[in-house]
Write a structure and sequence with these properties.
With 163 residues, the protein is of the alpha+beta class. Among the domains are: 31 residues, no CATH class; 75 residues, RNA polymerase II/Efflux pump adaptor protein, barrel-sandwich hybrid domain (OB fold (Dihydrolipoamide Acetyltransferase, E2P)), CATH 2.40.50. Helices cover 23% and strands 31% of the residues. The strands form 3 sheets. It has a 4-stranded antiparallel sheet with strand order 4-11-9-6, with no helix packed on it. It has a 4-stranded antiparallel sheet with strand order 8-7-5-10, with no helix packed on it. The protein has a 3-stranded antiparallel sheet with strand order 1-2-3, with no helix packed on it. The longest helix has 13 residues. The radius of gyration is 17 Å and the shape is elongated. Pathway: Lipid metabolism; fatty acid biosynthesis.
Length: 163
């Protein structure tokens, strides 16, 4: 079984190194890290563990459903925001847990419709107990927040859209 603390330790060491790519393979898992923009980390496991991974993979690769075919109002909302949101996508630079506010009892860093300045914190991604602030790459207006509080995010996953 994969030990998550060992994976986090490998991620931290890779992040601190000058390596651009790193692959590690055991009998039960394969792990690949890349700092290159054209690739993203891949974690695959044997069939015996695949069912645990399936919901995450399916959710990440499911194509949008047309509003007429949506089974519920929540699916329609997701489709509508995906179709009508404008602006540049701010993507995750690492794997971790996204936090939309500095603390549970504090207001969110940004909301849809907020004006942001370059360098302003949009959200935090926690990786290996380190809080990494994700700054706005430019001035603009937040048109979409693409993750929920405490969602696990992948490298390259869309977080916020700024127009």
């Amino acid at each position: 079984m994969v030990n998550i603390s060992e994976v986090k330790d490998l991620m931290a060491q890779f992040d601190q190194s000058s390596l651009r790519e790193f692959s590690f393979k055991t009998g039960e898992a394969e792990l690949t890290f890349s700092k290159n923009e054209y690739t993203s980390p891949v974690v695959s496991q044997q069939a015996s563990q695949a069912p645990a991974m399936a919901p995450v993979e399916v959710a990440a690769t499911t194509a949008p459903v047309a509003p007429a075919q949506a089974a519920s109002d929540s699916e329609e909302t997701v489709v509508d925001t995906a179709i009508f949101a404008e602006g540049d996508e701010v993507t995750s630079p690492l794997v971790g847990v996204a936090y939309l506010a500095p603390a549970p009892d504090k207001p969110a860093f940004v909301s849809v419709g907020d004006s942001v300045k370059k360098g302003q914190t949009l959200l935090i991604i926690e990786a290996m107990k380190v809080m990494n602030e994700i700054p706005a790459p430019n001035d603009g207006i937040v048109t979409e927040i693409m993750v929920n509080n405490e969602d696990v995010v992948e490298f390259g996953q869309g977080l916020v859209r700024i127009k």
